[in-house]
TrEMBL record:
Record CDD domains: CAP_ED
Domain of life, source organism: Bacteria
Alphabetized InterPro entries for the sequence: cNMP-bd_dom, cNMP-bd_dom_sf, Env_Response_Regulators, HTH_CRP, RmlC-like_jellyroll, WH-like_DNA-bd_sf, WH_DNA-bd_sf
Segments forming domain Cyclic nucleotide-binding: 12-91
Chain ranges of the HTH crp-type domain: 147-221
Assigned keywords, A-Z: DNA-binding, Transcription, Transcription regulation
SUPFAM superfamilies membership: cAMP-binding domain-like, Winged helix' DNA-binding domain
Lineage start: Bacteria, Pseudomonadati, Bacteroidota, Flavobacteriia, Flavobacteriales
GO MF annotation list: DNA binding; DNA-binding transcription factor activity
Pfam families reported for this sequence: cNMP_binding (PF00027), HTH_Crp_2 (PF13545)
Name of this protein: Crp/Fnr family transcriptional regulator
Native source organism of the sequence: Dokdonia sinensis
One cellular-component annotation, GO: cytosol
Length: 221
């Protein structure tokens, strides 16, 4: 299942998790978090990267006025905390579990560096992944700064269509099976849930889309 920050349809967890590799298997343990538990806070030491085995994780930070800013909501197979590999010493964001049974694979920076030193294809894939992640963050920041809310909704739907969508053979519609709640989507595009709901209903009334809790269907023009 491709997700927001997968690349080449590769599950990052399956590719990078050390428990798949004999050298690290005996030293490897998973960490489990209930809903709303923090995996790390802003200003924590950045000593590990994390791969999601199960569940959903919110990445964000707090502005000076206490407002929460959501940078990403990640799901099974994705990686976070990766800036520790690039030399970050303290976190400038938090990571919080959004599911009742989130399970992650914590990978010490030293272990990741060993893997990168010993395996050139692994290293190239990892840096390609980072490049695509930073590009997507930059695109989302541009949306938040320069686009009106309706445009942000439409462009986020287009992004989800790339990551989760498939063409319905009977109608030609693009069907998006996604893991997000309306609250998740509202947070990611910088609006409120009521505003998002209003826009989604307006788009539905104009036959741009149809939707329910687990699926969004983009109509053929």
């Amino acid at each position: 299942m491709p997700a927001i920050w997968f690349f080449e349809d590769v599950n990052v967890f399956k590719m990078l998790c050390p428990h798949k590799m004999k050298k690290y298997k005996d030293k490897h343990e998973f960490s489990h978090y209930p809903k709303q538990d923090f995996i790390y806070f802003e200003e924590d030491s950045a000593t590990k990267v994390y791969l999601i085995e199960r569940g959903k994780v919110k990445i964000g930070y707090y502005k000076e006025d206490g407002t929460e800013v959501i940078k990403a909501i990640l799901t099974k197979g994705e990686l976070f905390g990766e800036k520790a590999i690039l030399g970050e010493e303290t976190r400038n964001e938090f990571a919080q579990s959004l599911d009742n049974a989130t399970s992650v694979c914590p990978v010490p920076v030293a272990t990741m560096q060993d893997l990168m030193r010993d395996n050139r294809p692994f290293t190239l894939r990892f840096y390609k992944f980072l490049g695509m992640r930073f590009k997507k963050l930059e695109r989302r920041l541009e949306l938040l700064l320069f686009k009106d809310t309706t445009t942000r909704v439409k462009e986020f739907l287009a992004e989800m269509a790339e990551d989760y969508g498939y063409c319905c053979p009977n109608t030609g519609d693009t069907v998006i099976k996604h893991p997000y709640t309306q609250k998740d989507i509202a947070s990611l595009i910088g609006t409120s849930r009521p505003t998002l709901n209003t826009i989604m209903n307006e788009l539905k009334a104009s036959s741009f889309l149809d939707f329910n809790r687990s699926e969004i269907r983009l109509k053929v023009a």
